[in-house]
Amino acid sequence: MVTTTVHLLRHGEVHNPTGLLYGRLPGYRLSERGQQMAELVARTLAGDEGAPRRDVVVVTASPLQRAQETATPIAEAFGVALGTDERLIEAENHFQGLRFGVGDGSLRHPAHWPYLRNPFRPSWGEPYVEQVDRMLAAVDAARVAARGHEAVLVSHQLPIWVTRLALENRRLWHDPRKRQCSLASLTSLRFEDDTLVGVGYGEPAAALLPGASQVPGA
Fold first, then answer.
1. Which residue, among 9, 1, 6, has the nearest Cα to 55 in the 3D structure?
2. Looking at domain 3-91+126-214, which of 3.30.70.270, 3.40.50.1240, 1.10.1040.10, 3.40.50.150 is its CATH number?
């Protein structure tokens, strides 16, 4: 049996002073803290933070700037070329470029209400099943490329989360507030040959998460 691990890494914190739902819009870079998160994840995977060095031979990212910037220090730490895979991109969303909410947000405009009619698909953006299909295709390609070693795929919260739900045979529609996929977190898929045998989750940048310093013992 050959063991291969594919890590799904959510990008670090994004510089977004206006609070827009940026989605697939270009030009959204990591914040200073987001850059620190990316560097900390790279050091952790490389064994410089007390954890064992991982056997990473493939690093691939979504084409969006925030994912590329998160992946770069990891590729550099392991001396591998950084790849790009469109299948890892953020989910398409009707509310992209808007403030999502009531008050001064987009939900106060009736023109947007029809996009909220079906939360199970969801009606406001790319169907969950389509996100899962493309993400699993990217995972499979990485598993083959990194056979017997480890791969890191840098993507976005929603695609990573619904992929995990699918692999754990859970329903895809969910409460976004209950996603276990924090900034710069790792959802790790362990395969024996072609069979998924385990799903793990870790937060190597937990100390840098917003509000972490307010948690006792953090």
1. 6
2. 3.40.50.1240
